[in-house]
Design brief:
CATH topology of one domain: Photosynthetic Reaction Center, Chain H, domain 2
CATH superfamily of one domain: Photosynthetic Reaction Center, subunit H, domain 2
Structural class: mainly beta
Radius of gyration: 58 Å
Largest sheet: 7 strands, mixed
């Protein structure tokens, strides 16, 4: 059975963990909450099933890495920790060292599995409890030996030992359902430009101007005393006498003046309107296929 490093098998493995990285998580014993190391890698088989977490024990044993079967690990992303199930610090020290430069063969994995197959309560004496007055003391110094299953390299399969390689918390899995929603936003864009200027137009204007002209009117009339003799002194015959009368007339005089006709004020106003748009959105619904089994939904 060939094992691969997680990143070599699936470079985009972080998408499986919702963008989180399993590497770097602290490894703690369950119950005692004692830190024993840090996850440095994960190993998967040819089908991509998780088989081991590589734990760096550098926290107290510098440079040593060991394998933790995935069935003995519980990942808690709420606190960024991995808790070991049924593994003590002493057992971790007894595990064979993992070297990625060496091939992982059946014999090496059997050495690893041999440590995990030995329950803690079966491998060392328990501390005797102090009897309480009124009770019967019970000898709990040793427990019965555990039965170790036997396998061979030709028939062994990881499914033979679900306690080591089965995925934990199968009855408490979380399935997230997603849906798409329309999020309305606005984007300001230029729709055009209005240019306002002025130019000069010419036209012919007409105006009426009243004017006056002078002319000479000569009237010849017969006086009432016509025919009456006059004295020689009164009748003064002189040659060359001229009467002069000046004649005037008015001519139109036109000039141009500029006057303010009107003002043009330019401003912008904002009009509000509601525009409806539509788009197709998706939503995940839960499909439950339980046959005739009773299912309770909460």
């Amino acid at each position: 059975m060939v094992l691969y490093k997680l990143e070599d098998f699936e470079p985009n493995y972080r998408e499986t963990f919702e963008g989180r990285d399993i590497n770097g998580l602290g490894v703690y014993t369950q119950g005692t909450d004692e830190k024993i190391g840090t996850v440095s890698d994960a190993l998967v088989d040819e089908e991509g099933h998780f088989r081991y977490l590589v734990v760096d024990l550098g926290f107290w044993i510098f440079g040593k890495k060991v394998l933790l079967p995935i069935g003995r690990a519980r990942i808690d992303y709420n606190v960024d920790r991995v808790y070991t199930i049924g593994l003590t610090r002493e057992q971790a020290e007894d595990l064979p060292e993992f070297n990625e430069r060496l091939a992982l063969d059946y014999d090496y994995e059997e050495r690893v599995r041999g440590v995990y197959r030995q329950p803690t309560d079966y491998t060392r004496p328990l501390e005797a409890s102090t009897p309480v007055e009124g009770t019967i003391p019970v000898d709990t110094s040793y427990q019965p030996a555990a039965t170790t299953p036997t396998y061979n390299r030709d028939t062994y399969n990881y499914e033979h030992e679900p306690s080591l390689y089965g995925v934990n918390e199968q009855d408490h899995q979380t399935l997230r359902l997603y849906e798409e929603r329309l999020v309305a936003g606005k984007r300001r864009q230029k729709t055009g430009e209005v240019a306002i200027g002025k130019h000069v137009e010419t036209e012919t204007a007409r105006v009426a101007v009243p004017i006056e002209r002078e002319r000479v009117v000569i009237e010849r009339v017969t006086p009432a005393d016509a025919g009456t003799a006059v004295s020689g002194r009164e009748a003064d015959f002189r040659e060359g006498e001229v009467a002069r009368v000046e004649i005037h007339e008015e001519t139109p005089e036109i000039r141009k003046e500029a006057f303010l006709r009107e003002e043009v004020r330019v401003r912008k106003v904002v009009e509000q309107d509601t525009v409806e748009t539509q788009e197709t959105v998706r939503r995940e619904e839960l499909d439950v296929n339980a046959g005739n089994l009773p299912i309770e939904e909460r």
